[in-house]
Amino acid sequence: MEHSFLAYLRGRCRKLTQVTVGIGDDAAVIEPATGQQIACVDQIIDGVDFLSGKHPLADVGYKSVAINLSDIAAMGGNPTSILVTLALPNQNSTRIAGEVYEGILEAAAEFNLAIAGGDISTYDGPLAVSVTLLGFVDRDKAFLRSNATEGDAIMVSGAVGGSIRGRHLRPVPRLDLAQRLRHSVEVTSAIDISDGLSLDLDRLCAASGVGAELDTDKIPVHKDAELLSESSGRTPFQHAWSDGEDFELLVTMSQKDADILAGQELGTPLTQIGNIVGRTGLWQRQQGKLKRLSPQGYTHESL
Ligand SMILES: [Mg+2]
Fold first, then answer.
1. How do strand 211-214 and strand 281-286 relate by DSSP bridges?
2. Structural domain that includes position 52
3. How many Å lie between the centroid of ligand 1 and the Cα of residue 192?
4. How far is the CA of 2 from the centre of ligand 1 (A)?
5. At 250, is the secondary structure helix, strand, or coil?
6. Sequence-ordered alpha helix ranges (H) in the chain
7. Ligand 1 centre and the CA of 244: distance in Å?
8. Which of 53, 113, 148, 215, CA to CA, is 20 to 30 A from 88?
């Protein structure tokens, strides 16, 4: 199956300047990046990260690329090419590969990515899609999780919560926003929200050795969180606080930079939800009082 499928795939892949030799040789030949190379990989597995009986496989393919693009956005980088590895169940492997690749090719075309190569194998197990994404970032300009400092503004893009209603299959990586920020302010730290606003903010804070004071009523709650709350028994805020797979950006910058951005059109909404503080932990500030927030999505322990 591999030979004929790869021939088909080679015909479907556009030639792009970033990859001199793509699918069909022993390895890809890729033009060197300007600045610094960045790379990330993410694997999604049937039954763990998606359900093949429920989710269209083209969406699964699209998502496997988009979640990597979100990581590149969180680093302030530009994506250039991907390597794709499919582990296919023995049954219907060619059909499955074709459907997954429809979504991969769609994402590649949308974001001008070259498909530099990959691997396909069949086995007695569930579908697994692994995408390695290569890109570049200007030297020493990558957004790290570890540089947030006391007083920085904490900003979140878009709106969060309830992505399980469908947005999680077609996430919008915030690449353009990241580039606009990189050119207009100094981003001190960044992370993309894959496991929930509170958990990923907690990770950013842990990496920077700081904490966060939040104006929780400023957190932009997605309409999906409201709709989901009608049947979930949880509040829209709880969904916004702890649902995963929003793939929005969480960034920090000086309060001065945040104020400069306040009046600007960035293409994607960017909302300040609080400030970085020296004391570790996540805190809600309200009427001069602080309340400890749990990254699991509920509040306890008054201060
Ligand atoms: Mg990430």
1. parallel
2. 2-137
3. 5
4. 31
5. strand
6. 2-12, 57-74, 93-110, 175-184, 197-208, 223-232, 236-242, 255-262
7. 11
8. 113
Cα of 1 vs centre of ligand 1, distance in Å, is 34
Whole-number Å distance, alpha carbon 230 to ligand 1 midpoint, is 29
Same domain, 203 and 280: yes
* Cα–ligand 1 centroid distance for 173 (angstroms): 11
pTM exceeds 0.90, yes or no: yes
In the reported structure, the alpha carbon of residue 105 is separated from the centroid of ligand 1 by a whole-number distance in angstroms of 22
Name the domain count of the chain.
2
Q: Per-residue pLDDT for 298 more than 60?
A: no
Question: Do 191 and 252 lie in a common domain?
Answer: yes
Instruction: Give the separation between CA 47 and CA 55, rounded to whole angstroms.
Output: 11
- Does residue 231 sit in the same domain as residue 160? yes
Instruction: Dump pLDDT digits (tens) for 217-240.
Output: 999 999 999 999 999 999 999 999
Could you tell me if 137 and 108 are in contact, meaning their C-beta atoms sit under 8 angstroms apart?
Answer: no
109 and 233: one domain? Answer: no
Name the pLDDT band for 303 (thresholds 50, 70, 90): very low
Task: Determine the distance separating the centroid of ligand 1 and the alpha carbon of 79, expressed in angstroms.
Answer: 14
